[in-house]
Specification:
With about 120 residues, the chain is of the alpha/beta class. About 45% of the residues lie in helices and about 20% in strands. Helix 4 (about 85-90) links the parallel strand 4 and strand 5 (about 100-105).
Length: about 120
């Protein structure tokens, strides 16, 4: 199906999300923060069908990573996730760059549905 990059500094969230999407048939890679994700995106020449990233992370947050990645790879699809209301507001400034924000905590069904919709967009 699709090649996905899951970015989250929380190992349990990253692993849960990656397993849910791999079980749905996607090829999944993982990164632990925005800087790591940006390295992986560059190494893949932007060849991910979707990058699903947490917003609040150390080193480089998801907003900065999304801005930087979209400048180099303008066709890259990005979907953000967060459990913090103030971070959702920050993501609003990226309208047109990201396909939306997934609210944590989410269920397997919810994340699969949101990723499916982002891939179809």
């Amino acid at each position: 199906m699709a090649r996905l990059l899951i970015v989250d500094d929380d190992l349990s969230v990253r692993t849960f999300t990656a397993r849910a999407l791999a079980d749905a048939g996607h090829s999944v890679e993982m990164a632990e923060d925005g800087a790591d994700a940006l390295d992986k995106i560059r190494q893949a020449a932007g060849a991910f069908d979707l990058v699903l990233s947490d917003i609040r992370m150390p080193a480089m947050d998801g907003i900065e990573m999304a801005r930087t990645a979209s400048k180099t790879f303008p066709g890259l699809r990005l979907l953000l996730m967060t459990g913090f209301a103030d971070q959702r507001e920050r993501a609003a400034e990226l309208d047109g760059t990201v396909l939306g924000v997934v609210h944590k905590p989410f269920t397997l069904a919810e994340i699969r549905d949101r990723v499916g919709k982002a891939l179809a967009a």
